[in-house]
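lol ok so funny story. i was supposed to be doing the assay writeup but got distracted and ended up predicting the structure for this chain instead. priorities right. anyway since i did it might as well share w the group, maybe its usefull for someone
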Amino acid sequence: MRFNLGAALRNLLGVGMRPQEENDGEVPSIVLLLRESRVTSLEDLRLASTRAFGVGFSSDITDRFYLIQKVLFTIIKVGPHVLSFMHYAKPYGEERTAEFLSTMSSPKQQRAWTGHTAWEAVNYVKSKGNLNREYAVLARLCAELVNENCVGAWIPQGPMMIPNDGSLTRYLEQVGSSSDGLHE
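and the output, tada:
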């Protein structure tokens, strides 16, 4: 599923963004696949962000750490990092399900994929090309969002499918601990 998140966020935030030639304009992202469409509230997202990064998040865009909702987007600023959060009440890439399933060799992966009806994505905005650090930041937040409604995580740039079979949170925590995520 292709969505020009960069252009939409440039418009919203009024900031310039460096093109990402190496990944054809796609932003680093982690998609949490959900059994049911239950939108994470702004307050729950604020609490998850606080647990993930150990700081409080305001709604003041002049602060170093903030979380705001503007029209279709929820924006999370974590020091020098800007993330967006989205929720959709339909299966991820439903028009390409057969293609996605063909990349998954494990029955657990396939069951997780076919068992989701909605998804939430955390996207890294304004990539500077340090994908390890950027995925560490994403993973720290996603680890705090995984719950019983999450059947797995899809990483489009891999592509990689990780079912929520007890290993997903550990995987995200491991990726998240690979960088402190708050500094350039």
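Residues 1-23 have pLDDT under 50 and may be disordered. The chain is about 30% helix and 25% strand.
back to the writeup now i swear
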